[in-house]
Write a structure and sequence with these properties.
With 417 residues, this protein is of the alpha/beta class. The chain has a domain at 57-82 and 131-197 and 271-358: D-Amino Acid Oxidase, subunit A, domain 2 (D-Amino Acid Oxidase, Chain A, domain 2). The protein has helices spanning 10-21, 60-67, 83-95, 98-126, 144-160, 169-175, 200-213, 257-261, 326-339, 384-399, and strands at residues 2-6, 25-30, 46-47, 75-77, 137-141, 165-167, 188-192, 196-197, 217-220, 224-230, 233-239, 242-245, 248-251, 271-281, 292-295, 300-305, 308-317, 350-358, 365-368, 374-378. Strands 4, 5, 6, 7, 14, 15, 16, 17 and 18 form a nine-stranded mixed beta sheet that branches. It has a six-stranded mixed beta sheet with strand order 9-2-1-13-20-19, covered by helices on one side. It is globular.
Length: 417
């Protein structure tokens, strides 16, 4: 088949890989001049299936309201009226309770662990390099309330059979010695040894070269204007470079996906959740962190990417605004410096902002769209890098008419019907 993949972030690139591997003729369309220039460019770098969890959690609405009163709060919610945000928030509020958190986390765990296994297979087949480290993740808690949240997460991990260890301060420092000089209070921690990290932008660049050699055609600098349909079937897309016809079309456009599919009557409940990151050079490897560390108090994840560390976090529901607020950079630098005061060149930190395409309940939206020939790989939120290979393999299986290796319960658009 001739297949059109719309979007060349980590999800679109991974989709193209699995479709090419299945023997199909693949074209990838991307509005930017290269792959992974938006959300996949400067994310935290964590490949964290054990840590994968919905933003919709017990107590989050109250926490968000309290944070809204603080200038440097990790979460911000714009009060400017916007219908899409209000609709998304209404759905999100229904998911912010313990029973729904458990259901949604287990759904995310299912696809995320499958995805890391898929990524390891991809690495073995392609031989690409992208600063991959399999060192696990350490989730830090600064308060007793955060430790209680950790207990809820640990309970879900136990139910799903995922390796994890609850630690005190001394145990956390033993796992990541670079925390020995931390100035923050470490009330406890959750160690997730099976998780990893890597640079998704480097991954996409390397995979673009690999896919080109495999015959994939890339249409960079090309905007998707609308989907083409004939009767009840989607037959391709109208782009700034003309019409591209295909027997199947996969939408992997992140935050642009809802507007693209809306004219077909598809209501995709995906809203951009703005986040920020800094990339900091390592000047002393002995004092810099070697594993991914999640500061639960400030919602900031730190990952080691070769001779750099990437720290990303915070959440702002402010639409598609990508402006860089210097105050947010200061928050990131301060939070990371409090954990790791030595070994990093904070004066030369590079600042970035991106938009995570978030569903209200957490899991992505995969597979059949309701239109023949149109498939969805959307709504990965802050877990796009973690889930990309698994969701893309699932969607490729569906395009090929094969049964996916994992259960799709709770992972399709049907759950919002």
């Amino acid at each position: 088949m001739k297949i059109l993949v719309l979007g060349a972030g980590v999800v679109g690139i991974s989709t193209a890989y699995y479709l090419t591997r299945a023997g199909h003729e693949v074209d990838v369309v991307e509005r930017h001049p290269g792959a992974a220039m938006e959300t996949s460019f400067g994310n935290a770098g964590g490949l964290c299936p054990s840590f994968a969890a919905p933003w919709a959690a017990p107590g989050m609405p109250i926490k968000v309201l309290k944070m809204a009163l603080k200038a440097d709060a990790p979460v911000r919610y714009s009060l400017w009226p916007e219908l899409a945000r209000l609709r998304w928030t209404r759905l999100w509020l229904k998911e912010c309770n313990a029973p729904r958190f458990r259901v949604n986390k287990l759904r995310m765990q299912r696809v995320a662990h499958y995805s890391l296994a898929c990524l390891r297979e991809l690495m073995a087949e392609t031989g690409i390099a992208f600063d991959f480290h399999a060192d696990g993740v350490l989730q830090l808690f600064q308060t007793k309330a955060e430790c209680q949240y950790g207990d809820i997460a640990a309970s879900a991990l136990k139910e799903f059979g995922i390796a994890h260890h609850r630690l005190d301060r001394h145990g956390a420092i033993a796992v990541e010695p670079a925390l020995r000089d931390a100035t923050i209070n470490i009330e406890g921690a959750l160690h997730l040894p099976s998780d990893a990290s890597g640079d998704s932008h480097l991954f996409c660049q390397a995979m673009t070269a690999w896919l080109r050699n495999a015959g994939v055609r890339f249409h960079f600098g090309t905007e998707v204007r609308r989907l083409l349909k004939e009767g009840g079937r989607v037959v391709g897309a109208e782009t700034s470079a003309g019409a591209l016809k295909a027997e199947a079309t996969v939408v992997a456009m992140g935050n642009q996906a809802p507007a693209l599919v809306a004219p077909l009557g598809i209501k995709l409940p995906v809203y951009p959740l703005k986040g920020f990151s800094i990339t900091v050079p390592v000047i002393d490897g002995e004092q810099a962190p070697n594993m991914s560390v999640m500061d639960e108090h400030n919602k900031i994840m730190v990952s080691r990417l070769g001779n750099r560390i990437r720290a990303a976090g915070m959440a702002e529901l402010v639409g598609h605004d990508l402006s860089l607020d210097p105050g947010r950079k200061a928050v990131l630098v301060r939070a990371v410096r409090n954990m790791f005061p030595n070994g990093l060149d904070y004066e030369n930190a590079k600042f970035w902002a991106g938009l995570r395409p978030m569903t209200p309940d957490g899991p992505p939206i995969l597979g059949l769209s309701g239109w023949d020939g149109l498939f969805l790989n959307s709504g990965h939120g802050s877990n796009g890098w973690t889930q990309a290979c698994g969701t893309s393999r699932v969607v490729a299986d569906l395009v090929c008419g094969r049964k996916p290796a994992i259960d799709l319960e709770g992972l399709t658009i049907g759950r919002f019907s």
